[in-house]
Amino acid sequence: MMAESPLQDESALKKGPWTPEEDQKLIDYIQKHGHGSWRALPMLAGLNRCGKSCRLRWTNYLRPDIKRGNFSEEEQQIIIDFHQVLGNKWSAIAQHLPGRTDNEIKNFWNTHLKKKLLQMGIDPVTHRPRTDLNIITNLPQLLAAAANFSNLMNIPWDNAIKAQVDATKLQLLHNILQVLGNSPPPNMEALSNLFASRDHQLYEYLRMNSQLEGLLKCGEDGLSSQGVNAQAQSNYPNIDAPQQPFSDHYPIKDSKPRSHNSDQLVSSYGFPTSNTLPQLVSASPECSSANTINPNDIISNPSNATSTTFEAWRNLMDDGANDNYWIDIIE
DNA sequence: AAGCGGAACAACCGCATCCAC
DNA sequence: GGTGGATGCGGTTGTTCCGCT
C-alpha cells in the first residue's frame, strides 16, 4: 500500500499535540477554502503538519458540529446496540450518533462501555454471556464456587436472593450449564462431590435444566432424582431468551449436528442442549465472526438490536420483579 | 506535598479501499 | 486491467489528568 508521500521532508513535520495557533490556522483555512486536498492543505495553510494529521485534527476535534461532553444513556445504548451488530465499525456506528466521532466512540467504548458489559457478565465482543475457554479446565474451582453459592442459599430465600443473586452468580450457574452441555466430559469427581454435599438447592437448579438431566443419566451417581416439576421448569429464568430468538434475525452458522425431528441442537452427550441456553461462545473475535449477521436488517430498525442476550440480561438485572423468578425457581 | 497508578483521551501508524488516469 | 495517489478506518501509543496513599 502507498503511504502518504509527503510534499516536504517528513522528519521536519511536527507531531504531537496541536497548539491553539495551529488550530486557528487550520480553522481559518478550512472556513475560507474548505479542506480540498488534505495533502496540499498543510502547505497552503502554513502548517508544518502532514495532511493526515490535519484531517484527523479537523474531523475529530475542530469541526464545528462536534458534540462535546458525556455520552447520554441513550447514546450509550445506541453504541452498544449497534456494536452488537456492526462490531468495531466505529465510523458506521458514528453515523448513528450525530456530532460524535468514530474516535470518540471508540475511546468511550474501550474505557467505559467495555468494562460496563464485563461487569454485567457480558462478553463485549460477542455480546453474549461471558464464557472462558479456561472454564473447562477450571471446572473444579467453578463447582466449588457454585457450592459456596448454594450454601449462601440456605439462608432465608427472600433475603438471600436480594443480597446474593447478582449477575456474577447468574453467570457462574450459566457457565456451569454451558460446560455441562458443551464441553468434553466434565470432572465427574468434582460433580459428585458437589452433589454429595447438602447443596440440594443448587442441585435442583441444575437438574431442572435438561442438560444436567442428561448428564445424570450418563453418570448415574445414586442421588435421588425426582421428576422434574414442569411448572417449576416453566418458571425457570430463561437468561438467554430474547423476545425473538437471535438466530431468527441473524442466521448463525453452526457445525453442530442437529436432530432429525427439529432444529434443536444436539450436544456431544447425545441429549439436547437446552434451548433455554445459548451455545458456548468463545470470547475470541475469530469465533464471533462465525456469526452471519446482516447489518442492514438492524440499521433500518435499531430497536431490533435489543432482542438479544444483552437485553435479556439487562432486563434481568434491572427488573426488581426478577426476584420473583428466583423465588419461584427455588421454591 | 510528593509519588504513584490507573483512567481518559488525543494523536499517530499502518493497512484497506476508493478512484482517477 | 494495472498503477499510484488520496482518503478512510481501526488498532495502538503517548500524554495528561486525577484520585489515592
TrEMBL record:
Q: Where is the Myb-like domain?
A: 10-62, 63-113
What Pfam families does the record point to?
Myb_DNA-binding
Q: Which UniProt keywords apply?
A: DNA-binding, Nucleus, Repeat
State the Gene Ontology terms under molecular function. DNA binding
Region named Disordered: 233-264
Composition bias of kind Basic and acidic residues appears in 250-261
Top-rank lineage group of the source organism: Eukaryota
Q: InterPro entries from the entry? A: Myb_dom (IPR017930), Myb_TF_plants (IPR015495), SANT/Myb (IPR001005)
Give start and end of each HTH myb-type domain: 10-62, 63-117
Q: Which PROSITE patterns match?
A: HTH_MYB (PS51294), MYB_LIKE (PS50090)
State what protein this is by name: Uncharacterized protein
Organism expressing this protein natively = Populus tomentosa (Chinese white poplar)
Organism lineage reads as:
Eukaryota, Viridiplantae, Streptophyta, Embryophyta, Tracheophyta
